[in-house]
Structure formats: C-alpha cells, structure tokens
From TrEMBL, chain A:
NCBIfam families: PRK05715.1-2, PRK05715.1-5. This is NADH-quinone oxidoreductase subunit K. The lineage of its organism: Bacteria, Pseudomonadati, Bacteroidota, Chitinophagia, Chitinophagales. One of its GO terms (biological process) is ATP synthesis coupled electron transport. It is a multi-pass membrane protein.
Automatic annotation (TrEMBL), chain B:
It is a multi-pass membrane protein. It comes from Puia dinghuensis. One of its GO terms (biological process) is ATP synthesis coupled electron transport. The chain crosses the membrane at residues 12-29, 36-54, 74-94, 101-118, 124-145, 157-178, 198-220, 232-253, 265-283, 290-307, 319-341, 353-375, 395-415, 436-460. The lineage of its organism: Bacteria, Pseudomonadati, Bacteroidota, Chitinophagia, Chitinophagales. NCBIfam families: NDH_I_N (TIGR01770). This is NADH-quinone oxidoreductase subunit N. Residues 120-409 form the NADH:quinone oxidoreductase/Mrp antiporter transmembrane domain. Belongs to the complex I subunit 2 family. Its EC number is 7.1.1.-. It is an enzyme of class 7 (translocase). GO terms for molecular function: NADH dehydrogenase (quinone) (non-electrogenic) activity; NADH dehydrogenase (ubiquinone) activity; quinone binding. It is found in: Cell membrane; Endomembrane system; Membrane.
From TrEMBL, chain C:
The keyword Membrane applies. The chain crosses the membrane at residues 6-24, 31-49, 55-78, 90-110, 141-162. It comes from Puia dinghuensis. Its EC number is 7.1.1.-. Belongs to the complex I subunit 6 family. It is an enzyme of class 7 (translocase). The keyword Transmembrane applies. NDH-1 shuttles electrons from NADH, via FMN and iron-sulfur (Fe-S) centers, to quinones in the respiratory chain. Couples the redox reaction to proton translocation (for every two electrons transferred, four hydrogen ions are translocated across the cytoplasmic membrane), and thus conserves the redox energy in a proton gradient. This is NADH-quinone oxidoreductase subunit J. It catalyses: a quinone + NADH + 5 H(+)(in) = a quinol + NAD(+) + 4 H(+)(out). GO terms for cellular component: plasma membrane. One of its GO terms (molecular function) is quinone binding.
Length: 104, 470, 180
C-alpha cells in the first residue's frame, strides 16, 4: 500500500505557489523577494515531475523541463544578486522602498 | 547532412559566432580601440542581415523542437534590421563606454534567444529562448553602472520578469498536465476548453502580458524604460516587444486555436484597457522617455486589436505594423539618445526651440512622432489602418471605434512634443549638436522606412502572402 | 498507512511549514535557512516520485549553490538585521484574499479535471536514474542543452559587468567603499 493520489501532491505544489506569491508581494527585502520566486519555481518543478510520473510516464518531458528550470533559476539568481549588489552600492539598502528614484 | 542543419539555422549560428568572436577579442586582445570594434560589429550585423535574405527551405529539426519557414525568416530579418539600427544609434553612447564589447555580447545573446523563441516548436525551447533573452536584457538595463536610476531599473526589471516567468511556467506545467505534451503540434489536439485548461491558459497569457506590457501587468514598463540607457530602452521597446508579439500571435493562432472563442474576448478587454491606460498616463508625462514608454504601452493595445481579428489579415497587419513601429520608434529614440548622450537633457521642456539649432534632428523627430501617431502620409497611418481593419473583420465596430478614439487622444501628446520643438522657445535652448556618421545612417534608414514602406503596397502584400490565420 | 504515506505526509507538512516561515520570518538569514529546509523536503518528494537524479541536482544547485550565494551576500553586506516584513495591513489582507480566491479556483478546476483519482506506485521505477536521463539528454535534448550553455555564458558576462566595482580613477570614491 504505497500509493498516494495525485491530487495530494498537486495540493502541496499549489500551496507552495501561493505562499511564494504572498511572499513576493508583502516582503520588502529584495533578496527575500528572490527567495519567494524560488519557492514558486520549485512548486512548478513538483508539478512537472508529478504529472510526468502519474499521467505520462512513457516520456521524460516533465523531468527534463524541471532540470532546465533549475539550471536557469541558478543563472537568474546570479544576475539578480549582481544587480542587488550594484544597487546596494548606490543606495546602501536592499529595501525595495528605498528604490524610488522614479515615480509617476 | 550538415547543410540540412546549417542552412535553416544560419541566422542563429551567425549571431552566436559574432558573440564568440567578441568574447575572444575581449579575452585575447590586450589593446583594442573601441571605435574600430564598433565599426566591425556594425559591419558584421549588416552581413548577418544580408545573410537572412538568402532563400531558406521550410524545415523542422531536432524532433520538432526547431522549425523555420519563410514567415519566420522574415520575422527574424525584421528583428535583425531593428538590431542593426539600434546598434548604429548607440554608437555615440558606446564610444565613451568602457564596456562596449560586453554590451554587444549581451545584446547578441538576447537576439539569439529571440530567434530560438520565434522558431520554437516546443514549450521547452520557447521557455529557454525567452529566458536567454530576458536574463541578458536585465543586465543590459543596468548598464549605466554609476547611475542610481539604471540599477533601480535593472532591479525592477529582473524581479518583474522573474515573477512573470514563474507565472508562465506554472501555466506551462498545468498545460503539460492537461495535455501530456510540450510540442506545439500535439497540444491543440488535446485542448477541449475545460476549466483546468482555461486556468492554465490564463496563467500563460498573464506571463505573455508581462513581456508585452499589456495593462494589468504594465507597471514595470515606465520605470524600466526611464532608468535604462536609451539604447537599451529602444531595444526593449521594439525588438523585445516585437519578438514576443511574433511568438504570441503564432501561439494563439496555432497552439491555442481551439480556445479562440475564449481568448478573443479576453484580448478585446485587455486591448481597450491597455490603450486607455497608456494614453491617460502619457498625457501627464514630462520626461520624453517616460512619454515614449507609455506611448509604447498604447501601441501594444493597438497590436492586440489587430490580433483579435484571428485572420490572415490579423497576422499580416501585426507583422507589418511591427516593421513600421521599428522605424518610427527607433527614429524617436535615436534623437532622444543622441541629445541625452551629448547634453544629458531628456525633458520635453528641454526640447523647446530645438528646431533653431538642429533642424535635421527636429525633422527626424517630427516624422517619427507623426508616424507613431498615425498621420496619413507616413507609414504609421497604414500600419494602424490595417490593424484596425483586421480587428473590424469580426464585426466588433464598437471596439474599433474606441481604438480610433484613442488614436485621437494620442495625437494630443505627440503634437505637444512637436509644438515644443518647432514653436516654443526657452532661454537656454540646446545648441548645435554633432551627428556622427553611423547615427546619421540610422536616421536615414528610419526616415526612409517611414516614408517609403507605407507607399509601397507590395510590402504588405508579401507579408500577407506568408501569413497564417483561420 | 505505509512508510511511503508517512514519509509523504511528513515531507509535505515540512515543506509547507518551512515555506510559510520563509515568507514570514523577520530575519532574512532565518528565511534562507528555512528555505533550505523546504528544498530538502522537496528533494525528498522527488525521490518518492522516482526522480532521484533531480533530487540530488536540486540539493546541489539550490541548497548548495544558490542559498550559499544568498547567505554570502547577507553576511558580506552585514544585512542580517531584522526587517519589517509587511508594507501595510491592507495590502496583506488583499494579498491573502486574492491568493485564496485563486487557490479555490485552481482547486475547483483540478477537481473537475478527474486528475485526483490518478494513482501510481511510488518508489517503483528507474526513469529518474542518471543512466536513462543521460541517454535522452544527449539524444533528444541536445539543442536545449546547448542553448542553456549560451545562456550561462551571457549570464556570466552580465554578472561580471554589473558586479564589478567601478575603477577608482574613473569616479571619485565614496559609494564604492560599501560594496562587496
């Protein structure tokens, strides 16, 4: 009896997605916002792998998609960190509300 | 066997080759002169543009991951042309920049990304192409390293694009769950319009909407456009937007054709919202870059109006409009870029009395703005006309009426700039500016494109003969 | 309830709790540490779903590289002070309400899609092993693989350009002395 319905796994991934969304909108620390994005990306990965395993196990498309997501997330995080460091040199803060040079 | 791969992939390979050449120059050469390199790169870009015009067979490579045809080659040629103009215009700014080579490396990486994105036959390739273009673009928008505004723009850009990619990916993952495939040819067969698939589609649509700055997702646009270096803003507003529109329309017309009834209504709503919001905010801007940013949001609304036609005319008018939009928007941004590089002034008030000392720049600006506004002798008029005709093909006359009304509102703020240039005066007008050769060529290209493309009917007919629709 | 179920429930609760703590804890360093817990839990899920290679990659790349990078930046810039996490209460409430509504829509859509009845044997498969993945990766997925190499190159160039300190003869010192 080691079976788990697909809906349980999808629930976990959906919950992670919305927690990530919530974090992205409410946090002010730039690096924490990045972490929220990583949470969302991980929920996407769980989705892909679960669909691959449960519904379409004959091909490996889902697994490969998540592999590439992980790779690109790393590149994106690196560039984002560089931008944040550069901004920190200019502003001495990583609070998004400090980045308000341009307004309507 | 190799020609079977090399010929369809020639544009991507050429761009990547230039990229690596620059990398080797940067790493290997201890001493080089920036001016020489800039001229070399421009010649290579020209060669790349010419290479694209050689005939290319329709091909599907790598298990359907990459496909190309005459329409796609045409789209790539349009992007190549735009990149060449951007590069010519940026000459003045890059000459003084210490990292001109890196600028081109990042620029060409984004171009490769766009090419692979347009040619993708698979959601994985689409996503990779999109990211290959977005990640270097965010770095480019932070390229004025000492300026606070530039790094702020880069930050806003990367956070919003990471968020939009995440939405897009969640949509793709649900779509994969619903259809069991990532290939563009297999997905439509499994689409039946269930609630689950619609939800996935809406997430995908919001991801796209971010990239083309359609209204509920447009908030990053103005700040990023204002803060980035002008050359990057120009690139963002035409090349990046044009490429995403190309793949967007392809996805809607082929992959999501079974859901056409649903997306048609969504796009009409988004289009009206986008045009109105873009116009209302553009009315109150004083910085010319911000004004052009909001005007580009408005133009996205018009392009969406053309897409709702869902016909061959819809596809053709969008591609035709983007071609004209490249000429007109780059003309306007070119003038802003030149003046900003030499005097550092970007507000509309600074442009008062520009005509007295710089008649050439003033005329380029005026013609570009007329074309953006859609005033008859210029090509912009024909572009808008075809877009609205395509949109009217489905009988939504109220919607097309609103779009036409928006053209009138837009006229007001374009004329405001023209009035400042030609009629107003100020105590310290901008003095006589030197226009180097390369930007001069770019201005010539833009003005010629604006004046000639509209008159030559065969351009539209040619695009129409290649278009897709249903 | 078998071992697999027990493990599944344990990992799920760990992941969700960890995620909530990531977005609510005031100290950014705590956020990073909780995020590592989430990644470990998710890697556990991957192993249950027979994606063993991905589980290891997830640990190495996310927990090993990205999180260390984040921690490094926090420590380097001395940013481990508490920050007020929320902007204002109304925004928070609005976020929870819209997020909850979306969640409901998604759950309803999922229920309709007849996916919930799907079952699969857990821990009984070798599709995720490195041998099978490698064969497919270098046959069917060569082009995406090459594209991602160009992507890494361009990301590297971008990071070097942006992250590098401005040369001292170019600008006056002042803001640079805070940099990492």
């Amino acid at each position: 009896m080691n079976q788990i319905p697909l809906s349980h796994i999808l629930f976990v991934s959906t919950a992670l997605f919305f927690i990530g969304m919530y974090g992205l909108f409410t946090r002010r620390n730039m690096i924490t916002m990045l972490m929220a994005v990583e949470l969302i990306l991980n929920s996407v990965n769980i989705n892909f792998i679960a669909f691959n395993k449960y519904l379409y196990p004959e091909k490996l498309e889902g697994v490969f998609f998540s592999l590439f997501i992980i790779a690109i997330a790393a590149a994106e995080a690196a560039v984002a960190i560089a931008i944040i460091i550069n901004l920190y040199r200019n502003l001495h803060s990583i609070d998004v509300e400090a980045a308000d040079e341009m307004k309507f | 066997m190799w020609t079977g791969i090399m010929v369809p992939l020639r544009q991507e390979l050429m761009v990547t080759l230039i990229l690596f050449l620059l990398l080797f120059i940067k790493v290997g050469a201890s001493e080089y002169r920036t001016g020489t390199i800039l001229r070399l790169v421009n010649i290579l870009l020209l060669a790349n543009l010419v290479l694209g015009f050689f005939p290319c067979p329709d091909a599907t490579l790598f298990n359907g991951m990459f496909h190309t045809g005459r329409l796609i080659v045409l789209e790539k040629n349009i992007l190549n042309l735009g990149t060449l103009i951007v590069s010519l215009l940026a000459y003045d700014w890059l000459k003084e920049h210490r990292q001109a080579l890196e600028f081109y490396m990042l620029l060409l990486a984004t171009l490769t990304g766009f090419f692979f994105m347009i040619s993708s036959g698979n959601l994985l390739m689409f996503y990779l192409g999109l990211e290959l273009s977005t990640i270097p673009l965010t770095a480019l928008s932070g390229f004025d390293l000492e300026k606070k505004q530039s790094s702020e723009a880069a930050l806003k850009f990367i956070i919003s694009s990471a968020f939009s990619s995440a939405l897009l990916l969640f949509g793709i993952s649900l779509l994969y769950g619903a259809t069991g495939s990532l290939g563009f040819d297999a997905i439509p067969r499994r689409l039946d319009g269930s609630a689950f698939q619609l939800f996935a589609f809406i997430l995908l649509l919001s991801g796209f909407a971010f990239k083309i700055s359609v209204v509920p997702f447009h908030l990053w646009t103005a700040d990023v456009y204002e803060g980035s270096p002008v050359a990057v803003t120009a690139y963002l507003s035409v090349i990046s937007k044009g490429a995403v529109f190309f793949i967007f329309i392809q996805a809607l017309y082929t992959v999501f054709r079974p859901l056409a009834g649903n997306w048609n209504r969504m796009l009409i709503l988004l289009s009206v919202l986008t045009m109105l919001t873009g116009n209302l905010f553009a009315l109150r801007q004083n910085n010319l870059k911000r004004l052009l940013a909001f005007s580009s949001i408005t133009q996205s609304g018009f392009i969406l109006a053309g897409i709702t036609g869902s016909s061959r005319a819809g596809d053709a008018s969008v591609i035709y409009f983007i071609l004209i939009y490249i000429f007109s928007n780059l003309g306007a941004f070119g003038v802003v870029s030149l003046i900003s590089a030499q005097t550092g002034r970007e507000n509309i008030d600074d442009y008062k009395g520009l005509y007295a000392a710089n008649p050439l720049l003033s005329w380029v600006m005026a013609i570009s703005l007329f074309s953006l506004a859609g005033i008859p002798p210029t090509a912009g008029f024909f572009g808008k006309f075809f877009l609205l005709m395509a949109g009217a093909g489905r009988g939504n006359y109220v919607f097309i009426g609103i779009a036409a009304l928006n053209m009138v509102i837009a006229l007001y703020y374009y004329l405001r700039v023209i009035k400042a240039i030609f009629m107003d005066s100020q105590p310290q007008p901008i003095g006589k500016l030197k226009i180097p050769l390369l930007p001069n060529i770019a201005f010539g290209l833009c003005v010629a494109g604006i004046l000639v493309t509209g008159v030559m009917g065969w351009v539209y007919d040619y695009i129409y003969s290649l278009s897709i629709g249903f | 309830m078998g071992t697999t179920q027990l493990l599944f429930w344990f990992l799920s609760i760990l992941a969700i709790l960890g995620a909530i703590l990531v977005v609510t804890s005031k100290n950014p360093v705590h956020s990073v540490l909780w995020l590592i817990v989430v990644f470990v839990a998710i890697s556990g899920h991957y192993i249950l779903l027979d994606a063993q290679f991905l589980a290891i990659v997830n640990l190495i790349v996310y927990a090993g590289a990205i999180m260390v990078l984040f921690l490094f930046v926090f420590m380097l810039m001395n940013l481990n002070a508490d920050t007020e996490p929320q902007k204002n209460r109304w925004l928070k409430i609005a976020g929870v309400v819209t997020g909850g509504a979306l969640l409901l829509v998604l759950v309803a859509a999922l229920k309709k899609a007849d996916l919930k009845a799907q079952m699969a044997e857990m821990g009984k498969g070798d599709i995720g092993l490195i041998h099978n993945l490698g064969l497919v990766l270098f046959k069917d997925y060569v082009v995406p693989f090459e594209i991602s190499s160009v992507l890494f190159l361009s990301a590297m160039v971008g990071v070097v350009v942006i992250g590098k300190k401005a040369e001292e003869d170019k600008t006056t010192l002042g803001s640079q002395k805070y940099g990492g």
